Every structure is written in structure tokens, then in C-alpha cells.
TrEMBL record:
Domain YrdC-like: 14-200
Organism of provenance: Kushneria konosiri
PANTHER family: DHBP SYNTHASE RIBB-LIKE ALPHA/BETA DOMAIN-CONTAINING PROTEIN, THREONYLCARBAMOYL-AMP SYNTHASE
Name this protein carries in UniProt: Threonylcarbamoyl-AMP synthase
Origin: domain of life: Bacteria
Gene3D superfamilies linked to this entry: DHBP synthase (3.90.870.10)
Amino acid sequence: MSQFFSLHPETPQKRLLTQTREILEKGGVIAYPTDSGYALGCLPGNKKGVERIKRLRNLDEKHNFTLMFPDLNEIGTYARMDSPIFRVLKAHTPGAYTFILDATNEVPRLLLHPKRRTIGIRVPDHRITRDILETVGAPLMSVTFIAPDETLPMTDAEDIRDRFGSQLDAIIDGGACPMEPTTVLDMRTLPPEVLRQGRGDVSAFG
């Protein structure tokens, strides 16, 4: 059964953040709150964790995985972007956007789209998410937690515990999350292509 941590939404407890980091460093898979529903996450090099998440979400090899970051500082290590793309990201982060970019060689192959070698990039506008990422000191491989045969993200940690507690190592309760998923933008061309319109405003992208 998973551990269940209730974090304060404005001042997340350092002790629980440290425990979350330790679980991830030991190969764990967590469910955690974001600005667009709950997400599933593990460290990017955790092959078994990635496979567990794929099974839990019924994902195929063509799914675009996402790396979560607390800010823009380390994104260039994992994704290729020039100055115009960086300016777009800077203007729209933190926020409910997933940016599709060409991946660098630092991204584990198991996370890459098999044909396009792309990776999703996120800088969420959520205090608990950012504090987890800062405590871990590395990006998280992440996918939105959408239950099998459903279409919207899960938004309640206790519901996740009741339905999926035996399949996770930790559930981070940060209260209710917005239900609408992120807006997904393919940034490999400018203006970017809107692949999915979600919570993030697309009016600035033509």
C-alpha cells in the first residue's frame, strides 16, 4: 500500500518533501498534484518506474512523455531550443502548458517518441509541484493521471488512494486540482502548432 502525504498547499512541509524525494530516489512511482489535475511521476532514468506508469495508464510507445521542471534553468540540458523558443517559454511559464521540443541526448531513450525523438516540457504553476521538483533536484518524468477508460485527469488524492493505492509508492495530497488538462504546443516551428487546447490560453499563439 502506498504512503499518503498531506502537504500544505502554501507551505509544504520539508519533512514530507524529503520523504517524497527518498521514495523517488529508491525507484518509486508517485501521484502528485499539479495545476492541471494529478500526475504520475518517477525519475527519468527509472526504467521500471516508467514501465509501471505505462501499464497503469495503458500507454503505447508513441505517447509523448513529459519532463517536469521547477523553472527554465535546466531545460536546455534536455531539450533543444533557440532564443525565439526560449522567449515563448519564458512568457508562458509557469503555467498549464506542455511544450513539445526536440530532445537532447540527455533524455533517456525510453521517454522519446520513437519516430520524432521529441519530449514534452512542463513548468507547472503549482507550489507543491515546484517544491517537490526543487527538493528532488532533478526533473520528473510525468504523465497526467487519467484513469483507464476515462478522459479527464484525476483531481482528488483520496480517490486515487482508494482506487490505485496498491499500485503506487506514494500519493501526495495537495487538495483538489483543476480538472482541465494542459494545452499542448509543438514548438518545433513558430508560431507553434496547438496539438491540444486545454487550460492554457492559446490566444497569444495566433
